[in-house]
Design a protein that fits this description.
Distance between the termini: 56 Å
Helix content: under 10%
Low-confidence stretches: 43-56, 289-295
Largest sheet: 5 strands, mixed
Strand content: 35-45%
Structural class: mainly beta
Radius of gyration: 29 Å
Shape: elongated
Length: about 425
């Protein structure tokens, strides 16, 4: 049988015949046409026949892109119009998808079948600009491929010019959706909800730099003038003061699942961990024994903000070293993010840092943007836009629903962005 097919193919090649897909048939087929006037390059086409593994029917297909926002998960539909869903169904892995960003860097793209003759391509663009999407089936571009996918800047979902002279630190009470913002120049807190409505102020007798919320929903604030940590109730009434001779310039704060208070001290160039009663539990400066042993490159230079995750790992923005350093709850060095090198994932004097439940690390820096990374340090996306540009942002906190709120210090405002 195979010999007969080979003989027939050789005979057709000699006659310079070409192939044409049947117009009125849905079943897999290959039809030879003897009209030499139509196609005169069969010998050239036969050289590429190795790209076709089967004679499967390829239905007409179009690509339907939706609005694409930088940093957000995007779905591009590949819709079949073959008429018969059984015939239209293809193994999703038969599609060859290539997506490249404006820098010609490949963007990870996941194909998915909806099992009804429709296919999807899922990706998360890292940067804005025109991306080129190519989709092939059986070695051939489907209809409308290659396609230019325009990725827009990530604009803030909402924002407000709050009554603050210099908003710096930010904390979110997930229980009631309250956002607390420190305004050290005015010695007060600004309190708003997720819609930036019902703004009120809590007057203080000190200048709070950063703020965190403890397990009892009390307010934990750093006082870098008096070099101490102050704990107050939600009305601003002081409950406790944590003092230590080792505190030199306490700035960024976080409270872990054990109700320990983690403090970044810029002048002491280290991170302190206190229990809730004010007893010093640990000091991290990068010189303690760890999996990397003692080495100058691991020493903290100017820690400004800190964050913690559900495992009590500590994330430190080491501004002078252009990096975020990750420690375990025991103080062992786990990772560094954007320590050196070049490219889109490099940090420029990072300040505010946050960690979400999905494992993302969010960092704002002196380039007036927010960078999103995995816990391992892989760059995910860059958030920000020229039209609504951040100016000297500081504190950042996640809202638990794929959004974050940021203190846009230079613009005296707060902004909320969606990053997932």
């Amino acid at each position: 049988m195979m010999g007969q097919v080979a003989a027939r193919m050789n005979s057709l090649v000699q006659e310079k015949l070409e192939t044409e897909a049947p117009k009125n048939r849905q079943e897999p087929s290959l039809q030879f046409v003897t009209d030499k006037a139509k196609l005169n390059h069969f010998n050239d086409l036969i050289a590429t026949i190795g790209d076709v593994k089967t004679t499967a029917y390829i239905p007409p297909t179009i690509i339907t892109p939706s609005d694409v926002i930088c940093g957000q998960k995007t779905t591009v539909g590949m819709v079949s119009f073959g008429g018969d869903q059984k015939l239209d169904k293809q193994d999703v892995h038969a599609f060859r998808i290539d997506l490249r960003d404006p820098d010609d860097i490949i963007v990870q793209c996941t194909p998915r079948s909806t099992r009804n003759g429709t296919y999807e391509c899922i990706f998360r663009p890292q940067i804005p600009g025109d991306h080129k999407l190519s989709v092939k089936l059986a070695g051939r571009h489907i209809y409308a491929s290659p396609l230019t996918v325009s990725v827009d800047d990530n604009e803030p979902e909402s924002g407000s010019d709050i009554n603050a002279e210099s908003p710096i630190g930010v904390a979110v009470d997930a229980e009631d959706g309250t956002i607390y913002v420190t305004d050290p120049d005015k010695k007060r807190l600004i309190v708003v909800d997720f819609n930036f409505s019902d703004e009120k102020e809590i007057k203080l007798d000190f200048a709070p730099f950063d703020i965190a919320i403890d397990r009892e929903r009390n307010l934990v604030m750093s006082d870098q003038d008096a070099n101490c940590i102050r704990i107050a109730n939600k009305e601003g009434e002081e409950i406790n003061v944590i003092k230590s001779d080792q505190l030199k310039q306490p700035r960024g704060l976080a409270v872990d699942n054990y109700n320990n208070i983690v403090v970044a001290d810029s002048e002491a160039a280290c991170v302190f961990v206190f229990d809730h009663d004010g007893q010093l539990q640990m000091k991290i400066d990068g010189t303690a024994d760890s999996i990397y042993t003692k080495h100058p490159v691991h020493q903290l230079k100017k820690p400004v903000f800190v964050a913690v995750d559900r495992h009590a790992n500590i994330y430190v923005s080491d501004t002078a070293s252009n990096r975020v350093v990750v420690y375990s709850r025991s103080g062992y060095l786990l990772n560094t993010i954007a320590t050196s090198g070049h490219g889109r994932g490099k940090l420029d004097k990072p300040v505010g840092v946050a960690r979400d439940r999905s494992g993302h690390v969010l960092v704002c820096d002196a380039s007036n943007r927010v960078m999103v990374y995995t816990m391992e340090g892989a760059f995910v996306s860059r958030i920000g836009s020229p039209e609504n540009a951040l100016r000297d942002p500081h504190g950042i906190a996640t809202l638990g629903d794929g959004r974050f709120v940021i203190a846009d210090t230079g613009n005296r405002s707060m902004k909320i962005y969606r990053y997932l």
